[in-house]
Sequence to fold (538 residues):
Amino acid sequence: MAENKVFVENLDQSDPFNFGIISYKVIADNVFADLAVSGSLRFVRILIDISKPFFYIWGEVSVMQTPILFGNVTSITSEDQGIHVVIEDETYAPDILRVLWTQFGRENLSQLDRWNIIIPSQFTTVEELKQVITVNPRERIVNKVLDAFNRIIPEGFRVRQSNFKNNIITIIASENPIEAGWLDQVEEALKKPPSRIPDEYSKKLKREPKKITKKIVPWKTHDFQESLE
Amino acid sequence: MSTESFVFEGGPHRHELLTELIEDLGGWIIQKKILAQEITITFIVPEADIPLIREKALKLRGSLREQPLLGTEIAVIAPTIARHHLPHLLCDIAEYLRRLGAKTNMIGLARGVGQRIAQISTHEKNIIEEHDVAVFVFGNFEYCLKEHKWKLYKELAIPVVVTAGPDLTSIPYTDHYIGNIGRLPYRFRLLDEFDKLQQIGNAVSQCARKVRSLLERDSLFLSPFAVKEEIERQIPEIRKVFSPTPIVPQIRGLRIKLPFPEFREKIANVQIGDYFLNEIADIVKSNFRNYTLVKFLQRSQIRIKKEKI
Fold:
């Protein structure tokens, strides 16, 4: 599905669909599929100018869930020994433990079994604990998407500047200091609708088994196998 | 005397006929491996006697495959060892060259990435020049390849094969260029992708053949394989080296995986016929770890060395 969301465009119009542009479409599709982020991305545009050189990636992230609080995944009661936390949804157990350990210290908590934890009552109150954030899916998705973008961008382009505003992640990468003129050029290009790579170019890198006309020599034969030249 | 290398695969019954024939013709058996009802013999024979070998292989009902890169050490080089360049393409190329008989080393440069910032150090250059042929695997953009990447391989003294994305026929300062292989995120599995690997194999074997034919005019005193056998016989410590190939044969030398400072004298005093090894070769420290490199001298160089003494 990711194939219809990703558009790779060349800002240098003299040879708009060269091998580099086609192959970066393949690379982007593969990276998004590998990291399983294509579901959380709505639309991606990759703008390339290789002679300056810079890479610009613009990605729109689909609507994100609200943060999950302690009150949603645990039941918390006040008892004689302290505050008793029972993990109800075990998928969040690692995150719950991580938050508790960093906030109160591992040595201060007594964990009875997989689900039951007791916190000494001088540290916090039940109401306070219920409002603590367990996981923020927004942060997680943004980190994943940024990781995917970093894998797409060529390794040599180490000067990077990323931005996240209104569900839109942008990243510009180059090996030289980033100039203001480049961003203007990018903004102008983003105003135009995205252009798809024509089929006659993209089929160059399409992996389809082709019909074989040549005779294949089996591994074991008493005749000579095909020589190199 | 130019030679050709082959691997024989067949049944072990009466295989002695073949090994005896190879020895009679003045060839070398590099490896003989019997596994249940299968035998694999890797050997080298003079080019003129190939029909005899072919006839014998047909009689024994086995198969013969050419190993054009046997006795060569090849460097497969990527700009760095990051996930961007490894493992897919580099491993495929290295593995395919191994199937053609070569010993391959995969090398990642420290700062080979980018355009303006791409560079190669003298130490890296020295390491690469210890090999017979270098295969550089680059990325997808024609601009990068033509304008910037040449500085990585321009000054190398060994033949260079470059593979990259753009579909070009040749690029400057290289012996061969193979296009349509760039930074790709998958392993090669289809038949036309194997054809690409075969093209690289052809290019590398052409380079190796060129080096060998240049050597024929003023040949080496002995074949590296003969010296290898002699070293194995005279230095028993080589059996305690745990790497899979303790002695790597190259076109014009040997890499011995024994520490240079301790074994320098011992290797220099290996006797081959009327000669000691240091009379027909230079024994130097390899840039790889602490290994020893034996560089054979050509006949004219040996004569000059003798006159000096």
